[in-house]
Write a sequence for this structure.
């Protein structure tokens, strides 16, 4: 379900007019970009500014800033759960695991808000999505362990933390990270997780 459809209907319960729906769609699009760049602390004023609407329109069309952020982040986390489901179906367990890990880390690298949400302390109602992500990580690790392609001494909880650590700050010891730093970090981490390193 997309973020627009996740938002509660207006107080009348009637189908919104076309222009009202367009405003909601613009607000959702702006919220996606703002959440990625700023994180969950982005203000309603900033989202409205990016959408090209007034703050009054924001609050006429949406129940709250939190409801909008929850809808946007739930959509992103549900998309990630879909990637995990496809990874479970891959006949090659290592390829499925690495495809999921790549998509997961790439999303974390691209969105400050997703990092906030996955940390679980952003104050938004995302518990069902976070529980689903935990379960998929657990299942993917169990699948890779069962196939003998993931180091048996690494529990699924460690995998969750290791994947979260791949996205780093933009600077360290006077160096600036390139746009693909997350990908280079991930390749090193995956090599360390593989039961046969250097594959």
């Amino acid at each position: 379900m997309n973020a627009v459809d996740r938002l509660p209907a207006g107080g009348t319960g009637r189908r919104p007019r076309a222009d009202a729906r367009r405003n909601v769609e613009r607000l959702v699009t702006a919220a996606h970009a703002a959440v990625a760049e700023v994180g969950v602390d982005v203000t309603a004023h900033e989202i409205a500014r990016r959408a090209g609407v007034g703050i009054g329109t924001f609050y006429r069309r949406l129940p709250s800033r939190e409801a909008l952020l929850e809808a946007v982040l739930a959509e992103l986390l549900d998309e990630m759960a879909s990637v995990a489901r496809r990874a479970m179906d891959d006949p090659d367990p290592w390829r499925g695991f690495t495809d999921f890990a790549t998509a997961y880390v790439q999303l974390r690298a691209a969105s400050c808000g997703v990092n906030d949400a996955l940390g679980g302390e952003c104050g938004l109602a995302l518990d069902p999505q976070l529980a689903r992500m935990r379960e998929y990580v657990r299942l993917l690790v169990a699948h890779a362990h069962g196939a003998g392609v993931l180091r048996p001494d690494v529990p699924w909880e460690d995998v969750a933390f290791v994947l979260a650590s791949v996205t780093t700050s933009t600077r360290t010891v006077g160096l600036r990270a390139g746009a693909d730093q997350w990908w280079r970090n991930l390749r090193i981490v995956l090599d360390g997780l593989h039961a046969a390193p250097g594959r």
